[in-house]
Each structure stands twice: as C-alpha cells, then as structure tokens.
Design a protein that fits this description.
It is globular and about 80 Å long. The chain is an alpha+beta fold. A hairpin with a 4-residue loop joins strand 23 and strand 24. It has three domains: about 140 residues; about 270 residues, Rossmann fold (3-Layer(aba) Sandwich), CATH 3.40.50.1820; about 90 residues, no CATH class. The chain has twelve helices and 28 strands. The protein has an eight-stranded mixed beta sheet, sandwiched between helices. Helices cover about 25% and strands about 20% of the residues.
Length: about 575
C-alpha cells in the first residue's frame, strides 16, 4: 500500500509539472515600427483570424464568427522602434494567450494612437482623439498596421514572431458643398475649455428647395441625431448607379441591398424637391469625443458639456447662417438607436429648446431594463444567479429570439480593445456618458468588466442623472407642461438588444401622467428588430432609410398643436 501511495503521488506531481509547463507561454512577439513613426501613447491590438476573407482588423465582432483579439497599452515608448507584445495581455473571446489552440492563422497588428488631455476638472487622461473617422480604431487616420500574414502559432514554443507595422491609414477627405448640402465646423468654447485643447462640432445641412429664391423666409430646424455621419446620409440627386455591383446584406438577408439604399436616397431627393414637402433645414450633427463616435448630446462628467455646446453654440450658429427661425418651438429632434436615446434625452434635458422628440428603438431609456439588466436590483450584469447555478444573460438576438451573443462577451470584446472605457464601443460610451469621474480621471465602472458585479453607488448616480424614464417621473410636476405632446417612442417588440423592455417601462410611466397627461405616442412593431421606427407597412430594411421623410412630415402636421400664439407656420410652406 505504501508503494502504491508513493507511485500515485509521483504521478500527480509529474502531471502537475507537465500541466505547468504546458500552460506556460514561451512564444515571443515583437512589433516593429517604421523609423519615422513616433511611438508615444496608444494601444497595440493583435488580431488573429482563421481565414483571409477579410482583414482581421475588420473581423472582430460579438458573435461566434469573430476573430481573436488581444490588446496591450503602450505608454511613454517615445523613440523606441520595437515593442515586445505582452503575451499575458487580455484577449477576446479567448482571454489568455496560453489557451489559443496551436495552428496556422492570419495575423495582423495595429497601433491605435492615444494623446494626452489635461482637462479642466484637474484630471489628465490619455485617450484616442477622433481624426475625422468617427472614433473607429480600425479606420482612424494615422493609425499604423501590418499587412496580414499567415503564420503558425504555438504558445508553448520558443519561437519569435516578428510583425512589422508598415501601413498608415490615410487622412479623410472632407465632403464638398453642393447646391443643397452644406458643411460647417466650429470651435466650441465650452468643450475646448473642458478638454484643455481646441475641440470642434460639425454639421451637414440639407437646404430646402427654394432656399435661394425665397431670401426672406426663415425655416424650422429638423435635427437628426445618430452616429457619426460622414455626409448627409439618405440623400442622392441622381438615380442608382446602373454599374453598381450588387452586394449582399447579411443583416437583412437581401441581395443587392446597396442598390435599394441608392434608390431610397434618390426617391427622398425627389420628395424633398417636390411641391408638397415641408420646407425645413435638416441637419446631421458631428460630435465625436475621445470616447465614441458621438457624445450622446448631453452634459457629462467624463465627456464634457456637449449638451450645452450643441444646444447653445452649434444650433444657434446654424440658424444664424442658414436663416433658421431660432426659437424652441421651431426645432425638433429625431433618430434611432443612439439617436433615439439622444432625441428623447435632449427633449427631457432642454424641455423648452425643442418641440418634439421622435425616438425610434432608443438605447435604454429606463435602467431597470438596461438591455437585459436591471442595474438597481440585479447583483451581476453577466449572470442570472440561483442557489445552484448561474445563467448567462443574452446580449443579442434575432427576430425569433435566437441568441447569438451574450452580454458578458460583448463587454469582454470591448475590454480587449481598450481598458478604462477607451474601446470606442457601445458599453464603454454608456459608461463614459453616465458615470461619475473616478479617482484616476476615467469613468467609474457600472460593473466590474471581468466579473460583472454591479456597483450600486454608480447605479444610483446613473438613475439621478441619466435614467430618462425616472427623470420624467421625478420631474413631471415641474416640466410636464413643457413635455406634453412632444414625446414619441417607437420600438420593435423583438429588438435585437432588448431595448423594447425599457420602452414598456417608460410607457407605463407616461400613461400614468396627469396634470397634464403626456399626450404623446408609443408604438411597437410586431416581431420587428432593431431600428423599427413606426412604419407598419415596410420592413426594417426599408423603413430605416426613411427617417427624414417620415418624421419631418409628421412634425410639420403636429407643430400647429404645440406652437405659441403668433408663430410663423405658413411662410416656410411654399
């Protein structure tokens, strides 16, 4: 028995030693920069793919088809041309390099440049500055990347992998003015003071038909909120390109969707210039931040006073140059998803500066349904926890409810792309917008990014400052008369991100209002996915392209019910 015990013990020791050796990452990876490229602050992103159908930098996604990504911060590396990639760096979906299966892969590296900001709140932060692309790490001008290489990777080997960063993403050429579409960019004093450097706001303005031939007319302002627009989208003055090679929309399962997009844009041009369309100024705003492709259009402890900058600097500037009426009753906002949240948020935060919010598929407007999480009652964002097991919370589904991404994995993807809320992605910008500033100058996490444990103090701050449904209920006695008739919500009941749940809760609050009753609108699309906007006649693939024509005409019919006595409701209806 003693001999048997010794043999078993020896086997266990050998096995443990073997496992320890197997788990060790011996592989070394060196990233080299060109001699004329200044390394200072940033993040090296290493992407590994099992196919060459697309560049690895464009293949990082939430579902099972994602490429593998690892991320590593680079700080104070000035004048050094070779960086040893830390194989202990956090990854997604495989979190540790040692767990990467041995095999042949297509490998690409990219350096995402960061800059130093000395903010007016006394904090110094290191962030990626937008460079005209809308805060996209894989498309940002000045970022440098490698040509994808096919190579064999074995984490336990003693090999050295060398990757050369040789390709620089070029500058973006700004769009040119046309007869109908104009572009402006202004320095914001409010934002420049906050960030400690010159910060700008921009806009694409679509002029009404007859703008030049009616020089004495002043126009209402239709403000579409949403993600960073490179130009005025949904607008085309010529028929679809007959030589356009039809593409396939993975999202909608439609061949030739690019031709549908062009046709819809051309149809809108014909409506806009036709005899019966309301004559308004339609604008798309550019307000990227160091955290995301837009600011969420509200004042924020981490992002700065974007709400005030847009409302009191940018919009009056546009109205002055392009003959806007310039009064709160003559402005309205609309948008979907991010733009839907922003449309409702600015109407709530600035009740008399806007006269109508048309919010489609809005980002969570009630944090009791922060997608699939109740941040006030749930203890963990990633799991539903019971006494004997825990279940992952869903993050993304199709119209039949089939889940293809967990909320945890969506968050871990962002963590691999950037720590301290710097990924430039969705969950990080919500945190950057809604959270207080942490001791290190970066947003305080609403939950631990790795474990999912929710910080209830941060959740309380979110509720008081950015939970739109809660604020509506809390402040209805104060602002109800200013909000009456202005709130319009639309959402598919199978929204891919479960955003309809927050709309249900908000509707209950609105329906319970009195003195005055809210007199607005809440509508749902049966089995409709993300971006449904109230169109019961067409599928999402069409209705998502018709925001301008839908909401501008809708507001023009409703404005007479909400305009002050003596308001000019006729001169701009020629």
């Amino acid at each position: 028995m003693r001999l048997l015990f010794v043999l078993i013990t020896s086997m266990i020791i050998v096995a443990c030693q073997s496992n320890s050796t197997d788990d060790k990452v011996n592989l070394s990876i060196e990233i080299s920069f060109p001699e004329d490229y200044a390394i200072d602050q940033g993040r090296i992103i290493l992407i590994i793919s099992d196919n060459d159908e697309t560049e690895p930098r464009f293949a990082v996604r939430d579902d099972a088809a994602t490429a593998q990504v690892f991320g590593m911060n680079v700080e104070n590396w000035k004048d050094k041309k070779i960086v040893s990639f830390e194989v202990e760096s956090f990854g997604y979906p495989i979190q540790s390099f040692k767990e990467l299966p041995e095999g042949e892969y297509f490998v690409q590296a990219l350096f995402h440049r960061y800059e130093i900001f000395d903010r007016s709140d006394g904090h110094t932060v290191i962030m990626p500055m937008d460079r005209g692309e809308g805060q996209q790490w894989n498309r940002a001008p000045g970022n440098i990347y490698s040509i994808p290489q096919k190579m064999r990777i074995d984490a336990s080997s003693d090999e050295k992998i060398s990757i050369k960063l040789t390709e620089v993403i070029p500058e973006i050429i700004p769009p040119e003015d046309t007869k109908y579409v104009k572009h402006i960019k202004i320095r914001s004093e409010l934002l420049s003071n906050f960030w400690g450097r010159d910060m700008y706001l921009g806009a694409h303005i679509l002029l009404p038909e007859g703008f030049d031939s009616h020089p004495n007319v002043k126009y209402p302002l239709a403000i579409m909120h949403g993600h960073f627009p490179s130009d005025f989208s949904g607008w085309r003055t010529t028929p679809p390109d007959p030589n356009l090679e039809p593409d396939y929309s993975e999202r909608f399962g439609i061949e030739g969707y690019n031709k549908i997009v062009q046709q819809e844009a051309y149809d809108f041009y014909k409506l806009w210039t036709g005899p019966d369309f309301p004559r308004v100024l339609a604008i798309l705003i550019q307000h990227p931040t160091p955290f995301y492709d837009d600011s969420y259009a509200v004042n924020s402890a981490n992002q700065g006073p974007y709400g005030d900058a847009i409302t009191y600097e940018l919009i009056p500037h546009i109205e002055k140059i392009f003959r806007g009426i310039g009064e709160g009753w003559s402005r309205f906002v609309y948008g979907g998803s991010t733009g839907g949240w922003e449309a409702l948020a600015v109407q709530v935060m600035y009740p008399d500066e806007y006269n109508g919010a048309y919010a489609a598929c809005p980002d969570p407007i009630d944090f009791r349904a922060y997608c699939a999480v109740n941040i006030y009652e749930d203890e963990n964002a990633y799991y539903q926890e019971g006494p004997f097991r825990k279940t992952l919370r869903p993050g993304h589904r199709d119209y039949l409810g089939h889940v293809d991404a967990a909320l945890r994995d969506m968050n871990l993807r962002e963590l691999a792309l950037g720590d301290k809320s710097r990924s430039g992605q969705q969950w990080d910008v919500w945190e950057a917008t809604y959270s207080p500033v942490g001791p290190d100058g970066y947003p305080m996490p609403i939950w631990d990014r790795k474990s999912g444990v929710i910080d209830k103090e941060v959740a309380s701050y979110w509720r008081e400052n950015y939970d739109l449904a809660y604020i509506l209920k809390r402040d209805w006695n104060k602002f109800g008369n200013s909000w009456r008739g202005k709130i319009h919500l639309y959402c598919g009941d199978m929204d891919n991100y479960y955003l309809n749940n927050a709309v249900y809760l908000t509707e209950e609050i609105l329906e319970d209002t009195s003195d005055p009753y809210y007199e607005g609108e809440v509508d749902y699309g049966d089995r409709a996915e993300h971006c449904w906007n109230g169109d019961h006649e067409n599928g999402n693939h069409i209705s998502r392209l018709r925001y301008h024509r839908m909401f501008i005409t809708k507001w023009a019919k409703e404005v007479q019910n909400r305009a002050p006595k003596g308001a000019d409701l006729s001169s701009w209806r020629y």
